[in-house]
Each structure stands twice: as C-alpha cells, then as structure tokens.
Amino acid sequence: MDPPREKWKNKFNEWFREVIYKAEVYDYRYPVKGIGVWPPYGMKIRNNVISILKDLLNQTGHEEVLFPLLIPEEILRKESEHIEKFEDEVFWVTYGGRKKLERKLALRPTSETAIMEMLKLWIKDHTDLPFRIYQIVNVFRYETKATQPMIRLREVTMFKEAHTAHATMEDAEKQVRSAIEIYKKFFDELCIPYMISQRPEWDKFAGAVYTIAFDTLMPDGRTLQIGTVHNLGQNFSRAFEVTYLKPDGTHEFVYTTSYGISERVIAALIAVHGDDHGLVLPYNIAPIQVVIVPIPYKGTENTVFELCNRVIKVLKEIGLRVYLDDREDITPGEKFYYWELKGVPLRIEIGPRDVANNCVTVSRRDTLERKVISIAEIKTKIPELLEDIRRNLRARARKWLQQHTFFSEKLEEAANIVNNRKGIVVVPWCGDTDCGLNIEDSLEGSVLGIPLDLEINVKGKRCIMCGKEAKTVIRVSKTY
Ligand SMILES: [Zn+2]
C-alpha cells in the first residue's frame, strides 16, 4: 500500500499532528508555544536515529563534546553578520533570581560563537588541525512564523551541530564534501529521499562563505530543509582571532565549517513513509521490530503461547527487538490496529492453525501483505523481510520525489507548479541576485539553490525571468 500522499495534500498538517500524538512520538500539548515533549516511544525512535548519526560521525574522525547553553552577549555579537541574522530570534536571560544581570546571556541559537571562543584557547599549532567536534543539544529560537511540532520550534531539542577547523580553505572544502557524504549515508539509512542544493547568496547561513542544504519533499508539496553544511572560511576565526602556528613560524587564521541536523529529520521520516494507518518505520529505527500477536481459542492457549515463546527465542537470538502482545483485555484486531499505528515493521500472528502446521503468519507494515512462513524458515526469512521493507520504503519515497520534480522554462508553468504545490520546479537562471529574488516573488516560492546532485546543461537556455543567457539552473518550491 502506497501512502496516500496526494489525498493528504491539503490536510497533511492535520494528519501529522494526529499521528505523532496518537502513536506517542511527540506531545505538543506543553503550555509553551513552539515547545514539545518526547514521550517514551518517541524517545526510543529519537535515540535510534541519534545512534546512527553518532556512529557515522565517530567513524569519520569527529569527537563528541558538550558546550554550555548560555552564551554571553558580547561573544554572540563578535561576528557581525551572524548576530544580525539571529538578533530577532534570540531568547535572552536577563535576570538571576531577582537581580538584573549586568551582562545579558543568550540561550544558544546555535553554537559557532561559543565554540570559537574555546577554539582560540585549544588550537595553537598546525598539528592541532584538522579539528572535528560535534554535540547533540537543544537550541532556542524565538520563531515568529507559525510554529509546528518538530518542524518549526522555539526549542529544538535534537540539534546535532558539528564544527571543524582546518589549516587551509582546500581542507575546509574537503570537509564540506565529507560532511555531505556523511549526511547522504545518514538519510539513506532512514530511507529519506533528498535533494542537495547550494543555497543562494541571500539564503546562506549568517556568517558563512556558502551553505549547502539537504531538502526533502513533504506530502503537502512543500519542501523541508533537513540538513545544512556551511563553509565558514575565515569569517569566524578572524572575528574570534583563532590562529595556528604554521611550520614556517608564521600565524594564520584557521578555516572552519559547521553542519547541522535536527528533529526535523524525524518529522521527515514520519511524513515520507507514513500512511492512513499511522507510522511506517524502517527496522533500524523501530523501537519494536517484530510484534507477536497470539490468537488463542479456548483450549489452545498453552500450545499457542508455547509456539510464541519459541519464536521469540529464535528472534532474540538473532538480535531483533521483539515484543509479545499478550494483553487479555483487547482483541487481536485492536492489537493489529495499535501496532500499525506505531509503525512496527513486522507483525507475527500465531493461532491454533499455525501451531498445527508448524508455521506463523507474517504481516508487513509497508504493504500490509500477509504470508505464511514455516518455523524452520523464521531465522532467515524475518531478517530478509525487514531488509526488503526498508528497500521498498527507500525506493517508493525516492520515486515519489522524482515524480514531483519538474523542469520548466516558462514562468507561468513554473508558477503553476509551485503555487499548486505540485512539488519542485527546476528553472534556468542567469545567476543575478535581483533576478533570483524576482523569481521567488513571481513563483511565490523559495529558491532552494543550485542542484549539486543533477547534471546541469544550460547551453542555449535562457533565464526564466529576464531572458538573458542562463548560467545555471535553480530549484524552486514552497518551503516550510
Ligand atoms: Zn535572470
């Protein structure tokens, strides 16, 4: 069964809010605007996602750190472009008890400035480079746009920010490419399809030389930014005077990068795979990978439960997260509904007939197809099925993104695609900033940037706005 995305187009928000609440992933009833709570089930999903990300970072030379939540005002103000952009979004701590503080303290909106302040003390010599750290923390932003659970928050609780320092711009460029590879692997693990674009000048990270972003397409036809990679050049190191001693005895400012991912990735995971029944989780994310529902009839309880326990033992031995739903107060049908809502990839039903035939009935969450597997095959067939579900989720999500990506050279046609939220439109562009801003106005969408994952040939093509020779193409869509 394919997710009924077209059907949701106009009620996606409603579906999303309902499913995260009912499946107990995220509770948005906390009485502060733009702030939510992770209940136990959501926390397990979150931890599984974090663990994949941490592994990828740890394997590529990054070390975990923890910086303070509070940043003194004068430090936040050191890089002028940076503060200019964040000024309107910062939460300030101005009181300690009843006493007004002499220096205002910001709740970190991101940690570049706090980290640079310490790098100045930590980095001395060229042998200290490259330097790669990351932390997974909460950050605060006073969002003025309509807040959305997991998507547009005032407290982002799962901000993974990596920060690196290098001896040369070339090394920083190399790190940017490496970060892109890490993120590709990460999103592939989550089966989330993505587009990689270099953000236009007017939409890069405040203080960056350039920003590369990952976007995915949500069921309502709007794109969601799910990851960013910034090359900061020497902008921050100059402001914070972070230098290193070169082998020739001279000092130079370091080159830095930073890259981030947040719980938006979990919102995307839920949105791109979910269906009318609720969550659909890839097995590496699912807190419970296989749920066993016994269907005993009077007099067969013993043999049915005996088989359930045998199956659990086999699955636990191969390292799967299995759960036996032996609740007596609800029917098997209600249990099916419950675990489908929770997104458990595989359900095994065991009744007297299965006992008699020495087999089990397996139902897969992605397609809701059922089939019978003999007990002897469980050990090999269940892991195969789990992997097959993941392959299917990845393939169908990717296909949907491709089907909703259009190329257009006509302004009216492109505007129609964006306005009716049909997806992403790729249009030829002359490269001029004013012209780019006009494209945003005319199409009533946002320029995601120049695609880094598409073959671009603009020979003979004209800018969709001004008609001058096109230098490249850009992606445009409605965004979150
Ligand atoms: Zn133009």
Task: Describe it.
The chain is an alpha+beta fold and 480 residues long. It folds into three domains: 269 residues, BirA Bifunctional Protein, domain 2 (2-Layer Sandwich), CATH 3.30.930.10; 97 residues, 3-Layer(aba) Sandwich (Rossmann fold), CATH 3.40.50; 73 residues, Translation Initiation Factor IF3. 36% of the residues lie in helices and 26% in strands. It is built from 15 helices and 21 strands. The strands form four sheets. The chain has a five-stranded mixed barrel with strand order 7-8-9-21-20, surrounded by four helices. β10 and β11 form a beta hairpin. α3 crosses α7. The longest helix is centred in the last third of the chain and has 26 residues. The protein is globular, with a radius of gyration of 25 Å. The model has no long low-confidence stretch (mean pLDDT 96). The site of zinc ion has 7 residues, from loops.
SSE order and pairing:
Blueprint: H1 5-8, H2 12-22, H3 40-58, E1 63-64, E2 70-72, H4 73-76, H5 80-86, E3 92-96, E4 99-107, H6 112-122, E5 131-140, E6 155-166, H7 169-189, E7 195-198, E8 210-217, E9 222-233, H8 235-240, E10 243-245, E11 251-253, E12 255-261, H9 264-273, E13 290-294, H10 301-317, E14 322-324, H11 332-341, E15 346-350, H12 352-357, E16 359-364, E17 370-374, H13 378-403, E18 405-407, H14 411-419, E19 424-429, H15 433-443, E20 446-451, E21 472-479
Parallel strand pairs: 1-5, 9-21, 13-14, 13-15, 18-19
Antiparallel strand pairs: 2-4, 3-4, 5-6, 6-12, 7-8, 7-20, 8-9, 9-12, 10-11, 15-16, 16-17, 19-21, 20-21
Bound molecules: zinc ion (ZN).
